[in-house]
Structures
1.
Amino acid sequence: MTVSRFHGSSALAWAVGTGLSLLAATAAAATAAAADFDPRRHDATRALVGELAEKGIERDWLERVMGEAAFQQGVLDAMAGAAERRLRWDEYRRIFLQPERIHRGVTFIEAHRDAFRRAEAEYGVPPEVIAAIIGVETSYGRFTGRHRVLDSLATLAFHHPTRGDFFRGELGAFLEITHEQGVEPGELQGSYAGAMGYPQFIPTSYRAYAVDFDDDGIRDLWTNPVDAIGSVGNYFAEHGWRAGEPLYHEAEGPAPPPADIDFNRAARPPAVPAAALADAGLEVPEGLAEEHRLLPVSLEDGEQNWRYVLGEHNFYVITRYNHSHLYAMAVIELAEAIADARALDAHWLEAVSRVAEEAP
């Protein structure tokens, strides 16, 4: 047992003095955090305020809002540990392919049947794919984030070590959107990366692709699932979705993956010819031309068991939403599970049988 060496009034004086010092330090840290992005003391924030004021946003409004933004170290920490960077496919899949999420996907489509029907007619994207995006992102609007978007974007804009310029643009877009729609920026919550609403659009995507799908005069992705459904469809259409085309082919192949094939490059369009995949030992489906370009994906389960998927153009379009092959596979498998639960023939998902039937 440790016995204090302080006694009587000396101990009290030490404790009070230490406590006051800690309180003072905490208060100072809190004040510094609150003032971290105050344009009166932060040159980079002041420059952004000036740019947005030139676009017609009231300077007083901008200065007040940015004066309320606070640095969040947890945002930077979360950016460094994203699940797509640290999990195997089997671990990642378990997060999203659960019976409850599948069931909620079915009920979400049924609850908004007209919006999904219109989105497919206008944008060519099947309901199950749109629902799977929203299901993976926020479990159909149930979990839209717990970080203040203003804090996240300010932190990333001015403190991210490599992508500050990108997030500065997102912060500017966020301020423009909230000002235009009369929303108080400090009241909105989202992901640690500043993504918002049912579909987790970052602000520049919100500005570019959000649609007023129920014609009420407002593009509201925070609380309006109908606008979210139309906006996801529009996002895919604007990124080149090809209606009725498949997403992928299953393929057999050697273990481990052939070293001369560039797997899992989801950030670029399909680039590997079918002939090169066949030469490397993968069983490419019959009916594909030798020069047909694919996006090869290798998925490992932790026990040296490998699964191969050959992504088509629409697979790549899904990765425009999140540049991860794991993300695309989670969306595809959730969409397939929702379609199965709805007892539908999801011909747009896996292409092996259809290509074989169409082969000359």
2.
Amino acid sequence: MDAIHSPGRPDSHTSKGSKEDPMALNTLPTVSASHNENAAHHGDPIAATSSFEMRKTTSDMRNTRGMLGLHPQAPIDEEHDLAEQQDWWWAKVRIALREPFAEFFGTMILVLFGDGAVAQVLLSAGQKSAPGGDGYGNYQSINWGWGLGVMLGIYVAGDSGAYLNPAITFTNCVLRKLPWRRFPIYLLAQFLGGFVAGPGIRTVPPSPTATAGIFCTYPQPFDTKSGQFFDEFIASAILMFVIYALKDDSNKGQFSASGAWFPLAMFFLIFGIGACFGWQTGYAINLARDFGPRLMSYAVGYGHEVWSAGGYYFWIPIVAPFCGCLFGGILYDVFLYTGPDSLMNQPWFGLKDLARPKAAIMERVEKQKAEGLV
């Protein structure tokens, strides 16, 4: 964009002392004020007037987005931001809630593909018309479905950070200074995305004709309560540890799975967790992927057994992913991560802040404001 600015007129966004906006996108070249001043000087009043009347719609929504805990500047292409169509009411709603909408639809795509794979395998079991005469798919088909769902969900939710999992959002708030103010609205968007993606005979495991497992996870009958918890805990810890490794450009050596390769790497990560660690509990590893569809299955008539099955197993996919993801994130940051943005790289691993929580919170908020994060 510097090429279209007049000499000697520094761009206000890149002036000396300013910091790069961490949420800024790579935007297309757009008309700048200096260009239109030149247009007016050369006798083109229409170009000058029309451009000065235009304003960024995101500027009008900064206060609203701030109240929601989002970054004041919406992640939108600058050229689109200046367009006329952004001035009508729905465009403003879309700008104000751009990241929550992205998390909602990303999570919805994740659950649609995953639950769709489970449904196809379960409901087609024994179908003689299928190739091989024994249904359309097997356990590996389910792993492929969930892996594809995660990969495509990440592409859908790119502008929000594509967390798609409350436990991952929570871990980034604790360890990587993601503003806590974003956690509630991200959690709500992720939960609702899983809820709407969820729904015969409505039966719950361990019934041999159960179909409730299409929507959410249920443990194997032999699995103990501690076994159920640590199955989900370990899978969630692996998930978070590897995600941090994939996103850490300072530790890639000769390889890189970040950037454009990250969604594909996540596909293989989810497929691997399912293939190697998923049988005993169904590898929920995500509150939004399990609790939302479970609530939907209860609403459409599966009964109270969706809560009582497996010895009231339903709470484990809610709690264990938060514990496991936090543990996996701490493990990576303590031993491998060297960046300054981690709590684990502060003196005494940030434990001194526990003695003065109010001051620590205020310092963190002030720093985030200075960096333009909130």
3.
Amino acid sequence: MLSAYNEQQQLFLPYQYSREALQQSRQQMKFYCPQCLQPVQLKIGKYNIPHFAHIANKSCVQLFSEGESKLHYQGKIQLFEWLRKLGHTVKLEPYLPKLSQRPDLLLIKEQQQIAIEFQCSAISHEKWLLRTSGYEKNSIQPLWLFQTPQRQSTQGIQKIFISPIMQKMITTTAQGLSYLVSYDAKTSRFIYWTNLLHVHGHTFIGKVQELAIHKQHFPFYQPTSITKEEFRLYWQLYKKHCKQFVYQRLIHSKKGARDSFLRCSYELRLSLTAMPDYVGVPVKDAEAIPLFPIEWQTILHYFCRGLQLLPHEMDERDIRLFLRQQNVEITDRAVQAIKNYGIVIAKSYQKNDCFPDICEQVYAHLFAIATIY
């Protein structure tokens, strides 16, 4: 823990003192846990950030994240000082008795309380849900900030891997733009993954931007939409991923003619090495369908051929039948994903039935819907 009471019941923050001063304080003062009020030890190592720890076998230990990493301590201190400098009322590691929880930071803003959790280590979905629901049930807004993964260090438009737990932190603006903010305690920078486009599974395409902590406001900045020119790069990366998927499916599929995607491609006379642009189209809500878009859209075209319909001519009953045949859970989002696909390619059908530039239609659907539709 980063704070403890001294004998005068004053909160003592070791990081504010030099190691020499802390050595003297350790000899002259006693410190107590802010939660259980039992004695704690002031630890001053050469490499770790000075902190307090319970004496072994004390009953309070389970309520603390003892053994936290230096990076975690470092990040909490940086975020604490950042919010204080912005003029916010913020507490470091406060114990909330009603919840029996201790957030890394508690921000008090007017009538609102925000519990900030800086997460450096892996956390299970169950533990995340338990802590999040605990805050929400007590009218405290949880804000999870994850340490930026080491592999994600460059800026610009690129393919991004986002773990399942971090995907739960994705926020959507009023304009429908998805983004995620993480914090890198090593560089004291906030990392924005903006204009997120889901590809498949845990893979996204996004625009990565950095902002030094001294330039960051709170609440966080909200991203603006990428330009049509920037989306061209998204399109290229997305189509490259589609080609990789088709190649891997062709090489590794063991189902042969029983592979629905390969069989439908053959029946539609589609070349697997040069799939048309109108299949493999990113659309809103596609995450609700666990199949890769180029797969379910190819199968959808074959399904529509049997009905003698175009995708945008399907009604909801047709869509539900298609999802059922593919063993996909029938949800409102899954139905909407197929409707969205129909809307996008319908606009291209209207332009001489030759899909002159479906990329532009996809950009309008994903990022410029307010100005185009």
4.
Amino acid sequence: MGKSVGMLQHATPFLLGVAATLVCLTCYRSKIIVGGHARSLEAFSLINATQVNSTHIACEKKEVASFDDHLISREEVVNQTTVQNATPVEEEPFPDLLPLLKRVATIDKTVIITSVNEAWAMPNSLLDIFLEGFRIGEGIEHLLNNLIVVTLDPNALNHCTAAHPHCYPLTVDGKNFTSEKVFMSSDYIDLVWSKVKLQRRILELGYNFLFTDVDIVWMRNPFKHITVYADLTTCSDEFLGDPDDINNSPNTGLIYVKPTQKTIEMMNYWLDARNRYPPNHEQTIFNNIKADLADNLTVKIQYIDTSYCGGFCNHGNDLNKICTMHANCCIGLQSKLHDLRKIIEDWKFYKALPIEEKRNGSFT
């Protein structure tokens, strides 16, 4: 019995040492910080770990909260404790976009988006013509409340804020989008792909969007020709008569997308496809992959009849039906300005006609 007591006395310091070691390890483990970063409306799953290096670690307090089934640990660090990130914390893509979406969106979380650089946003340039279309259009001026103009350089932002209350500055690293970008030039291609990334982010945040190029004149509401059936609705360069026909030729200068996991995957597939094809316009790449999107991702794509949403390449002639007119097949800023101003003049003339004469209104 005395021998057992003696052994226990000798073992006590060892056991206390083990216990102290476990306490220290517990304190050290409590310094591991887990953070949740929202990435999409279905998945909040990007986790960043934090590593702690310390000469003296004292663990006084640990609070644990939960967020989307991930543990978030917060602790009070004392006695010269230094926290270092194992990996750099990723900055939120498109900062300050969500508050603007909340402010501008319709009650069903829909926004209209267009984009401009300085050349397009200057007074009497494309942005002014674009905004005028809403003001003189048929019952669409209120849609300006739901329009966000994305600006691609600081001067464009200055011009935008002077003309419209909802402007969002977008910067692309290493790129200068200030001047006119010639169709299919390298800068032009980078510019049009930057809008696809923004569109994806809008979907991730849970908002429907209708993107419209700024060289489009709106005369009536194109939402009347967008159904709840489709995941994606786009205008057409060539419309074959059936809105569900995958062989229609898309014009992504006016495109509507609903926010679902499927459409977010679609945007990822679209962006990835840029690297699988020779450098090209995002619309051409979309046309290349549209069958894959429909077959592999089961994306429901619908096309709007050119009688309603047309362009200079292909459009309807009945001014009683036309909703939008796109200055495609028109190269160069000055040429677009000249032709779009003619559209505005024709529309004003049409609106001033007596009702009987309006019924015979045509566009050539």
